[in-house]
# Entry
Amino acid sequence: MIALVAFRVAAYVRSHRVFQALLPLLVLISILHAGRAPRGAEAAALTDSAVLVIPLLAWATRGLLDTEPDEQRAISATGVGGRPREVAAGLLAALVTCAAFAALTLGSGLALGLSATPSREVVAAAVVVHALAVLAGVALGALTSRPLMPSPAYSIMALVAGFLTMLLVGASPVYWLTVPVTAWMKAAGAGRLVSELPGLAAVSLVWCLAGLTVYWCLRRSRP
# Structure
């Protein structure tokens, strides 16, 4: 599986699909950090970057999982000992790739986007929300990838609709019905991210794991 994960990441890079996510990510970073966030707004600035990078992480996941032809996926499943391992290798490759993108986003925010050095608690909270953003992006991208949604048009619309749903439902009183990304931003803007993060992280983690589980179950029954 480790070899297959490395193979898929290498194939994603060599196919140049990596630039479909990397270039928009660099544009996003440039816009977000064109001006440094004022003192006291460190948590809000870092949380905003975590939320806004989710669709790009989903796009990266979708591109990585779409790189391999159907026949190659069948060969990979045979080589690693079955469909479950092949599916797990794809998700791990997506997690590794998206973690690198999220680390670039967070590192840029800490280095370029703040006027003051944030506290350790704020940095730790930012790391958590970026990790949750990785899981949310991988789950959304996997559920809209070609093995499940062969039509590129429907796939892209589903990806955008999924992210918009997170934003809209997350802003409502029933934010717990989805990954509450808007609630992350509200808590950060009000200075309550550190105190409210355990509850928000629990809800987010449940929905991310649910999405990954659905993908896992659907892929096990499909080529």
